[in-house]
Amino acid sequence: MRIDIISVVPKLMESFFAHSILKRGQEAGHVEVVLHDLRDYSLSKQRQVDDYAFGGGAGMVMSVEPIARCIRHLQSERHYDEIIYMTPDGETFNQQTANQLSLQGNLLFLCGHYKGVDQRVRDMFITKEISIGDYVLSGGELAAAVCADAIIRLIPGVLNDETSALTDSFQDNLLAPPVYTRPAEFEGIGVPSVLLSGHEAKINEWRFEQSIEHTKARRPDLYQKSGL
Ligand code: ADE
């Protein structure tokens, strides 16, 4: 998979993709993440990428020209399965969307700033609009990083243990069960004895029951969706 990200602050995102699982995923060739500085596509001397809103009002609007130039340049090199605009008025991101996007070949993310992008960008180029929640960030970068992380860890081979993404919270509309590691006793508090039993079927059964209880208690809305 290849993920391209267009941003006015690409430096902000560099370190995020240069560590841990995301770094290993790239080094192993499972994914390539390429950051693009939108200002490189501005024709103005000041590398301007925004302008005042027609009709007035506070806040700048990201101009259509540099974005169109950047997207068309990238499109001339490859086909994008989705061109995604990160915006608080998009559809709310969830595990199902992450699963669907992880099956694609090339994704292009556009990070908004200021009051957002000129509507013509959305009408002409964008195929999907995603929000990561009902709050407003100062830019789409963190949101794009959140989506890219959730997507990349689902690509086969990126996680060491191939099955571990399948047992994540939300994969079946259930939250993950509690987990424990050594020591088996800490300040007098032990771990559930079934986990020390070595009995795989019983352990799986316990984990499933815990998932159900945990989901019922914390996310009754998800539990309903699970159909259990
Ligand atoms: N840009 C600003 N706020 C955002 C949000 N909540 N989700 C996605 N992009 C955003």
From TrEMBL:
Keywords, sorted A to Z: Cytoplasm, Methyltransferase, S-adenosyl-L-methionine, Transferase, tRNA processing
Enzyme class: transferase
Subcellular location: Cytoplasm
UniProt binding sites for S-adenosyl-L-methionine: 112, 132-137
Reaction(s) catalysed (UniProt annotation): guanosine(37) in tRNA + S-adenosyl-L-methionine = N(1)-methylguanosine(37) in tRNA + S-adenosyl-L-homocysteine + H(+)
UniProt xrefs under Gene3D superfamilies: 3.40.1280.10, tRNA(m1g37)methyltransferase, domain 2
GO BP: methylation
Coiled-coil regions listed: none
EC number annotated for this UniProt entry: 2.1.1.228
GO molecular function, one term: tRNA (guanine(37)-N1)-methyltransferase activity
Domain tRNA methyltransferase TRMD/TRM10-type residue range list: 1-225
Biological role: Specifically methylates guanosine-37 in various tRNAs.
Xref: PANTHER family: TRNA (GUANINE-N(1)-)-METHYLTRANSFERASE
Similarity field: Belongs to the RNA methyltransferase TrmD family.
Subunit annotation: Homodimer.
HAMAP family linked: TrmD
Protein name: tRNA (guanine-N(1)-)-methyltransferase
